[in-house]
Design goal:
With 379 residues, this protein is an alpha/beta fold. 45% of the residues lie in helices and 13% in strands. It has two domains: 201 residues, Glycogen Phosphorylase B (Rossmann fold, 3-Layer(aba) Sandwich); 169 residues, Rossmann fold. It starts with a strand and ends in an 11-residue tail after the last helix.
């Protein structure tokens, strides 16, 4: 079976989900091509598209929230969005590629390629089965104007929202958000510490702003350093691609803080930590929940992350974390409350599927073979 996976780099979560699906298809011996469809347009189109999103999220999160709110308002109108037509400009290159490289199914972890394929379908292009994977715990703007054969959503609790937005119920598959095998390993905390050369007798707080290093990282680190002074806590901070935040934190310097940029060892750091502070990206939260890590969610970039945070805190899978001395101190006290930690872990285990990548590949194979895959739907 030949599979095409399409993603974009507007935040690392889309690509992380794509890598997870690619990993599982390769394990099954399938032929897999993973690409950013904007690369087919030549020049630096993909880089410009990704950078525009990341720059706005890093430097003007309120502006990003305003754009998201406009999108939510626009979806009430009875005509197609500018996003659809903008992606239609890139659809011709994707159509030409597909004609020269036939595949059995196309899996998408981003809205943009879903819009491109919808544009092609609306203009008479014959397509293989198309599977869209939602990587946030909400139906993001303009999902409803796409025309895919299947929509994989993070949870059956969100089925009603997607139906209300116009997604046909028979195309909805609440299989979860896929994560790579590393996040499902049986590595123990001590083994992870040893692999990362961390002290076995220290407790670790992992703080991340996601792949783009967004959120109130600097304030959170400053407050946590003060609160944990004189304790056995150590901080590991993942700044992602945000060089500015990394430079500022380096200048301040602190013996108990380890700074990282991008890392390929996120699963090991998650396993090694006692508590994880992160902005509520769809993949960041899912990876932590799959590993059943105590999870504190920092203020979101307004938009879909606000919905992610509400979903996780509302279901008991995480606690909200405002960067104030009082609340951070209260969150640290969680580590001495076994019952609350066990409840958080139970909620994560019962709500977040660990095998989403396998189930998505099963669904894709069934659809490509012409089977209805009814067992993937909620009863």
């Amino acid at each position: 079976m030949e599979i095409l996976i399409l993603s974009c780099g507007t935040g690392g979560g889309h690509n992380s989900a794509a890598f997870a699906v690619q990993e599982e298809f390769l394990r099954r011996g399938c032929g897999v091509t993973l690409m950013n469809p904007f690369d087919l347009c030549g020049g630096k189109v993909a880089q410009r598209v990704d950078s525009a999103y990341i720059d706005l999220a890093q430097t003007a999160p309120k502006g990003f929230g305003a754009v998201y709110a406009i999108g939510n308002a626009y979806r009430r109108l009875p005509w197609r969005s500018p996003v659809y037509f903008a992606n239609g400009l890139a659809a011709e290159a994707l159509g030409a590629y597909l004609r020269g490289h036939p595949v059995d199914a196309i899996v998408m972890t981003h809205l943009y390629p879903a819009e491109m394929l919808t544009y092609l379908r609306n203009h008479g292009e014959a397509l293989p089965k198309t599977i869209f994977i939602a990587t946030d715990y909400t139906c993001i703007p303009f999902t409803e104007e796409t025309d895919c054969d299947a929509y994989v959503i993070p949870s059956p609790m969100l089925t009603g929202e997607f139906i209300a937005r116009g997604i046909p119920q028979q195309r909805i598959y609440p299989l979860g958000i896929p994560v790579r095998q590393a996040f499902r390993s049986a590595l123990t905390r001590q083994q992870a510490k040893q692999a990362l050369n961390l002290a076995s007798d220290k407790r670790y707080l992992l703080v991340s702003g996601g792949s783009i290093g967004a959120g109130k990282l600097e304030k959170t680190i400053r407050l946590l350093c003060g609160i944990t002074e004189g304790t056995d806590y150590r901080l590991i901070v993942i700044c992602g691609s945000n060089a500015s935040v990394s430079r500022h934190l380096e200048k301040r310097g602190h013996a108990r803080v380890q700074l990282l940029g991008k890392t390929e060892r996120m699963a090991e750091y998650l396993r090694a930590c006692d508590l994880y502070f992160t902005k509520p990206g769809g993949l960041s939260t899912t990876e932590a929940a799959v590993m059943e890590v105590p999870l504190a969610l920092l203020p979101p970039i307004p938009g879909c992350e606000s919905r992610n945070r509400a979903f996780f805190t509302g279901t008991g899978m995480a606690t909200p974390a405002q960067p104030t001395p009082g609340q951070l101190q209260e969150i640290l006290s969680l580590l001495n409350q076994t019952e609350r930690l066990e409840h958080m872990s139970l909620c994560q285990r019962s709500i977040i599927p660990k095998d989403a990548a396998q189930r998505i590949c099963d669904l894709t194979a069934a659809l490509a073979a012409g089977n209805p895959a009814n067992d993937a739907h909620p009863s």
